[in-house]
Amino acid sequence: MLECRQYAKLPQEAMLIRQEVFVEEQGFEVEFDEVDSIARHIVLFEDGIPIGTCRVYWNEIKASYVLGRVAVRKNFRGRAFGRRLLQEAEHLVHSLQGTTLCLAAQVRVKAFYEKQGYSAAGAEFLDEECPHVWMYKTL
């Protein structure tokens, strides 16, 4: 059984998933930041096991909600759980009266986000030596 839970504070389950995916697997060093304290966090569970996470927060500069730290544990990939996390984030933003959602996607997974209706805007940039691009979706 799949279940999504939302949290006002960074839960331990999200921390563990992000540590596993972004730090141990992908080699990022700066994973946890001040945004964690203002974001809403979503964790996806399968049969009680935390399998994926993301966060959503308002960004004044972009005048949009921002989706970030989308991660699915390696053993659970390829089963549309990333899409499920995006849908949950989009529902959250819609419930908050938001009309757009943007994210800084790793370029290697840009096609995944395009399939979910996101469009790239602007030049690629590096985040810890990993190419990223900003992407947007009108909800």
Radius of gyration: 14 Å
The CATH class name reads: Alpha Beta
Mean pLDDT equals: 97
Structural class: alpha+beta
What count of helical segments does DSSP give? Answer: 3
List the helices and strands and how they pair.
Elements: E1 2-7, H1 12-25, E2 40-46, E3 49-59, E4 64-72, H2 81-95, E5 100-106, H3 110-115, E6 119-120, E7 125-127, E8 130-138
Parallel strand pairs: 4-5
Antiparallel strand pairs: 1-2, 2-3, 3-4, 5-8, 6-8, 7-8
Q: What would the keywords be for this entry?
A:
alpha+beta; Aminopeptidase
Give a structural overview.
By secondary structure, the protein is of the alpha+beta class. It has three helices and eight strands. The protein has helices spanning 12-25, 81-95, 110-115; strands at 2-7, 40-46, 49-59, 64-72, 100-106, 119-120, 125-127, 130-138. Strands 1, 2, 3, 4, 5, 6, 7 and 8 form an eight-stranded mixed beta sheet that branches. The protein is globular, with a radius of gyration of 14 Å. The two termini are 27 Å apart.
Short description:
This protein has 139 residues and is an alpha+beta fold.
